[in-house]
Amino acid sequence: MFTARVSKFRFLTLAFVSAAILAAQNSLAHPTPEIISPEVAECFGQSSRKYEEITPALEKSLIAECKEKVKTLAPPEEVKVEVERETSGPPVASGWQTLFSDDFEKSLALSWNFFGDWSIKKDNTNVLEIGGEQPFYTSAGAESWTDYKLSFKYKPLKDDETANLRIKFRIDWSHNIYYSFKLSPVEKQLILEKFTGEKAMVLQQAPFEFQLDSWKNFEITAAEDKIWVFADGIPVMSLKDPENPLLFGRIGIEAEFTKAPIARIDDFKIIGVFEKPTWEHLGAPFGGKVAKILIDPQNPNNVLLTSEHASVYKSTDGGKTWKSAFKGLNTVDLLVKSLAMSPRDSKIVLAMSSDGPYRTIDQGEVWRKMSKITSPDNSVVRGSGRFAFSPSDPNRVYMGTDRDIEEDGVTQGGLFLKSEDAGASFTTQPAAIFNKNVRSMTVHPANPDIVFVGTKHEGIWKTADGGGTWQEKNNGLDYKEIAAVEINPANPSQMFAVAGQLSDQKFLYKSNDAGESWQKTAISFEGEEVKDVVMVKIASSNPSLVYVVSGNKLFVSKDGGGSWQGQEIIGAYGVFDIAVDPANPDKLIVGYYNGVMITEDGGNTWQRSVQGLGAHGIISLAVDQTDPAIVYAGDWSYGGVHKSTDYGKTWTDVNSGLGEGAIPNVQDLTIDPNDSQILYAAIHDRGIFKSTNGGTSWQSANNGLTSLNIAQVIVSPSDSNLLYAAATERVNYFDKSEQDSASYGVFKSTNGGNQWTRVSTGLQEASVQTIALHPSNSNIIYAGTALNGLFKSTDGGATWQAKNNGFENGDDYTQAIVINPQNPNELYAGIDQIYKSRWQEARTEFVTSGGAVYKSIDGGESWQKLNLDKRVATVEKITIDPVNPSTVYVSTHSPGVYKSIDNGKTWKPMNMGMLYLEDTYGGHNYVFAMDISSDGQVLYAGGCGRGVFRTELAGQRDLERILEGTESKKAKISPYLVIAASLIILFVAAVIGYIVYLRKRRIKD
Hints:
- The protein is mainly beta.
- The chain is 10% helix and 39% strand.
- The protein is built from five helices and 75 strands.
């Protein structure tokens, strides 16, 4: 009997011990997550993707490495804000970090972008003094800033009607919306306002006693939709924005015409939520449109260039490699139209941007906006303009602008401005003296008062007194549209000009009498007259050597323009500018559609040189669905198709077969979902091209197409032979008489693109911009149109029905459609509201007045507008996470990329690391293209003038176990350990109980 009991005891012991061991082993296999920061957790997620299996030891090692990495990358200062526990007080802000700080001890105040009159004064310490003859404005920070506290010291110097000062925050200049905290000594008020365009809404105001020449400390905290204001530590304002709160943006200070200093500011500081970059700028593919090139006359190794929508780049090795040089160049779209370098001090460079003129005194290391520019009508000097330095007077500089603005029926021409301090400040000639649109300028090499100006409509004009009076110099010119004017530095009587119809024919003219008369200079190539001259340049070290560029051809004259020899610039097309090395007349650098070409033998041989020049505009992207490392990018700046096999780190051009010369916009790239080697490219005005070898070569696939303006191609997921194409006509959407409606619409192919048939019955002569195909039923197609809304076909395109129920306007521009692959009844559509805009020369264009995203949950039968940021100008692309369809990404023309993780109910901007200039005025993000890998772990984006960006989404799902440990900030006990411990306790209790039982039995016995 006792033996039987012992056997039972052994059996129970073995069972308990085995269970405990198994539980403990399970616990070791799934260790308790370490408490780490979200930054470390994300780093761990990205690092862990490199390994097939994550062992506990490897996990521990990776976490340790990531801790060190995050520690080195973290901002240097972390500020903890004291908790305000009053109901009306700001929220707990522990962990907020310094985003911006300036005590003005560095007198240059480089952290700001100043406009108007300001100075750094001594007031015990250095302070910023505001006010003078010009309106004052300055801005700083990044558009991506969300919640933050702004603190500063303020001392009023005046209390009249000119003394008002505004502190602006959460600014979005691209849509002119912001909050304004107005300090008004004359009204004895603090006023909090919200500006949307020109409309101001007073949110709250409070009486306040200002004391002249006395410092006050102010704090403004903005968190989500709430704002608090403190003065010397005392709460003076507290509110919740009642409607469409502004949730992020930069900061600024503004004063109107003041005539004298009105205030001083000191110790300006912002602490807030630090958001580390989401996007990685890949830089490549290298290249892009180059419009202007400057070679340093004192050190020819230094070269500057402007690239369309990519600002300024610099080379310090003669053009072999490039790096960006636009710090402080705060143009909203990075568009810099002209550059000029001082011939005496080459560190001084002037730039004309879409935001106005800028100046650098260190050859592009830092740019500053020119603030002291006056114009007769107080208009802002910006846009298209030219500069010309005097070769004989280092302080004399001229600026000419091209406005062509029609106001009250009168055409306002450009401005002519003069500087006597090397471009630090300019004065303007009255419009009555000079009212012409300037396209080119040159200054006499020996007389700084003599200037020749080439205009847009009125030919060549000359001033001999620095702009005081002007004379027309068009004798012999057949055209009055002037693209270039050059003076021979060794013989000023000899001049060259390029004149013609700027949009068509342009010819070379020569003058031997200082511009008094002109003769057309005939240039021919292979027996044909050259009619498209772009630029003429004279070699400064050998003035008898003259270069002319036309298309992709270079013409050389060694006798001062008497005779010419022409040759092709192999590999270049659409040359925009040419620069001659001042020390070596045989070295030329040309800028063209796809970068820079260099010759060192007078044009006999050329080498493309674009390393580091990341200026391509990307309009389409396609990720290989079997390998996310392979991605294709379509160029809008004549670069064709680029391919990367290493997640975008390096790129190669894959353009064989896409046609000769410059390749127009690659509107769309599509990879066959059934065979990743098969690709389709839709190229503006060239139609559809097909590749069956991963882009190595292409063949035209246009049979049956009646329009070569193809916006998109889609392939059936179940049948590689079934394709649909969207054909658009971009002539004039508002005047159907100008278009052949039978040429566009939807086209269908049932044999892999070998033959196309138009299937557009019921589309109402619509220009189709985008199409989407049902993932499991290829007969269901959606088509988005320009001005006709959205259509649906359920019979493979044979017939179409309008599906605009819920759209605010049925005639809006449907730019994007996407279908949830896991629930095909759920769709998203990107809609742009458009209106007519009458531009110059009576040309009608369309302008978008706001982008929106709509959602349908019933297969397009009805639509609901989603609450996307109202600042969105144009919706370009919508992408659904293929693994988690509740996550949706939207790319926009401005302000950038948005993300929703709740099926479109709420949206957050996702632009950190993508902003073209995070510390700049405007901060537009033109994101035209976007695509995601099939595993939902890599998202690519491309846009205007900055190439391709990438963000790693991996780890967002893989790290749930680790992130759970960070959410509670408490160590979580593994359930396996709990089970093991429980079993052991039960076992011990059973043993003790059994022993007690046996002793009792022995005693009884």
